[in-house]
Amino acid sequence: MPTPLLELRNLSKSYQGRPVLANLSWTFRAGEFVAIMGDSGVGKSTLLNLIAGLDAPDPASTSSIIIDGVPMAGLDDDAATRLRRSRMGFIFQAFHVLPHLTLLQNVALPLLLNGLPVARAAEMLDAVGLGGRGDDFPHQLSGGEMQRVAIARALVHRPALVLADEPTGNLDPDTAHGILELLHREIKSTGACAIMVTHSHIAAEMTDKILQLSKCGIQETTIVKPFEQ
Amino acid sequence: MKHMHDTQHMPRPPARDWTVMAVMVLLAALVVASFASLPLKWRDFFTLDAVNSAAELLAGFAPPETATPFLVKTAWATLETMSMSALGTLLAVVAGLALALPASGRLGQTPRAAVRALLNVLRSIPELVWASILLIAAGLGPFGGTLALAAHTAGVLGRLFADALENAPPGPEATLRTNGASAAAAFLYATLPQTLPQMLSYTLYRWENNIRAAAILGVVGAGGLGQMLKYHLSLFQMQQAATVIIAMLVLVALVDAISYALRRALTR
């Protein structure tokens, strides 16, 4: 069994006294592609923000988030920023590709931030089917193409953990299917663990595992995997 | 019947806003009161004597002075006016950008309010008043004029830059922060490049204004074409004054054209 990459222990988060997540525990392993589903307001995006260190669990709780053996609670803001920069990749529903940079520059950003050689940016663009378009700007792309750029940017620095928040929420079903196939393939080839928040059952069924988040906690549900059939 | 049905279900027109009418009436009353209270001697202005005097004055401007030494002197004054406006604008850009960061709320709400108040003060005082104050401190000549332009323009640009930063889409900077960029790097790579074309456009527009302002500032002793104009007009040397006015027109037209072309290129 692959080693645990991310451990959530008794994770609790409240906003203005209203509990959103309560005593959540789960272990995510390297190489897993996991979907998290649940009703609106149940805390899916909050969970991603907590994992990313963009938000902190309730201080009074015994919550802990451990990434690659490193407890997030022991990290100050700078150290959490460094951890995100080197070990995580992010994919957003609204793509958030920087409009004033070329596609190649967008994909190269995580490499630049990590002080790594930028040559891999062109390889990643090639891998997501946008080879030869490195000098184009985001306004020249369709939504699906922009999400391909976002995936390349999220994976280019070989992060151990990829967090995706509704990555196909703004795409038509055919484009969404293509994007998820691409994401699945790239994650398997890099050996990263990917956690995808989604409302779409079709999207969820293309992952290895579906977790249902509810007021009662988190639990795995059985799924059909048409993608692997 | 169908038509009748549609009419019955048509949305009611919005209620008439009487405050707008009241403001319009008030404005009209103010305009009438302004004409009534000022001693505007329109009748005297259109008398035959007045027209003859004006024609005599205008005839005195022709032909403009074209002696080489005077043209060289005018060219130097033109350069001085342009330098004042360019340097004043440049100083204002630096100060405006430095003040725009706190004024855009990046350092919290209290610094935002304090710096916005300072920017209001800077831009509420016209260049001529700044020049009158600064010429006492810095002495006669282009230095005081340059500082006067910089002080007023810093207030204007600081406010415009701050608004541009506040209105920039937050997504790109947030994306970079999420991806592990430092706050400074996220600002420099995301928000600043997004707002830069707008800031450059504002700067060029203010430079256009400052060229005109620099010409006027010379009248209060801040050097350049304005000072030359005041000197020759006060000695009733109308032909020399005409040359200076033509130089002003050419300079303003030239800078307007350059600025317009650059702004078009930036905002395309």
UniProtKB/TrEMBL annotation, chain A:
Superkingdom classification of source: Bacteria
Lineage of source species: Bacteria, Pseudomonadati, Pseudomonadota, Betaproteobacteria, Burkholderiales
Record flagged with keyword Ubl conjugation: no
Keyword field contains Ribonucleoprotein: no
Source organism of this protein record: Duganella zoogloeoides
Molecular function GO terms recorded: ATP binding
Keywords: ATP-binding, Cell membrane, Membrane, Nucleotide-binding, Transport
Residue ranges constituting the ABC transporter domain according to the UniProt record: 6-228
Classification via SUPFAM superfamilies: P-loop containing nucleoside triphosphate hydrolases
InterPro entries registered for this protein in UniProt: AAA+_ATPase (IPR003593), ABC_transporter-like_ATP-bd (IPR003439), ABC_transporter-like_CS (IPR017871), ABC_transpr_LolD-like (IPR015854), MacB-like_ATP-bd (IPR017911), P-loop_NTPase (IPR027417)
Name of the protein described by the UniProt record: ABC transporter ATP-binding protein
PROSITE patterns in the cross-refs: ABC_TRANSPORTER_1, ABC_TRANSPORTER_2
